Request: fold
Amino acid sequence: MELDIGKGNRDKKTNVCFAAASLVVIISGFAAISLPAFGQTANFVAKAQSRSETSITEQLNSTAEQLNATTEHLNSATEQLNSNAELLNSKTDQSALTSEPSDQPVSKLEQSVVKKRRPKVGLALGGGGMRGAAHIGVLEVLEREGIRVDYIAGTSMGSVVGGLYAAGVPICEMEEKFTRGMLMKHFMTAPIGVRLAVAPAFLSLKAVGAHQYDGLYRGNIFRKFLDKSVPREDKNIESFKIPFCAVALNLIDGKPYALSTGNFGRALQASCALPLLRRPVRIGDKLFVDGGVLVNLPTQQVRDMGADIVIAVDIDERIDELPMSEFEKLGSVAHRVICLHLAKVDQESLRQASIVIHPDVNGIRMVSTKRKDAKTAVAAGVAAAEKALPEILKLVGPENLTVQGKVIGSPAPEADTTKN
Reply:
């Protein structure tokens, strides 16, 4: 029996070809089905990604709008807080400047602001020659009672006392300068009668071309005396322990100036340059005379420095009626005219004061060199300050009093328990 091997091989080839063709058909069908599905999936993912990006963008825009709205609310709240703070500060200043309690209700917030803010105390010391010794008596009482002075403005002799105190000169030392006659001796280096007698000699110097300003005294000796009275490091006003200004009148433009910088002695020489008696003092492009001509009681000047409470010390004589025989004395008419002028110019200044202390200095001449007058003026200052003390304490507040630089009623510093 013979076997047909070639036929078997042909059948195998036919089966292989059939299988391959079937595989091709299957793959082609799968491809025809899968490719569109894959394209649809890709489109779906792309669209989803686009929608996601759009959503994120919208969320970011919404968040930005919310942030802008929040910023506007914060700005509005800040403006409201600033407005409230200004209102509270305004009410605090008014309460500090008024001795009588207000009938208006005060909120708890306003009360806390008033309690925390210590009112600044300013002294306005008026001019008046020897009567200025009364300022020492006032300072003695304020210091004794622990009333801290934050600012000082002075005119003429008020600038001398105020300036020395601002520079740190002890009250007892200032009082000694008055009561021992040293200050007035340097203020008027020769009696007025002697100066008048030698005045023709000074006029003859002008005839030969000497250029001198009008007046009997130059005031240079007085300036040097004042400079020596303060510590070496305090020759300039801006270095003083207490902010200070001396008021003087500029003859060039007719305006008063508060001298708060520069040489101490020079500024006081200008503020004390009483017309006719003392020569004007040139400082820079200005020519100064006694500030009392227009501003004898510098209440506005000390308020401009930052004072909330202004204590004015008025050393003018009280204007009482006098008999006609009183004006037969030498210099009595000029003295009366000066007193009337000072009383007039001080009226507006007195209205700007929180408290007025008016020592009884009647009978003390401005150019007096008597030690008795100095002692009388100091005692008058003490008496007047003690009389005004209850009102001063009411304005300043007992919680703001100090003793040797420490606030009364404040908690004592904790003891250092660290062992060496």
The chain has a mean pLDDT of 77.
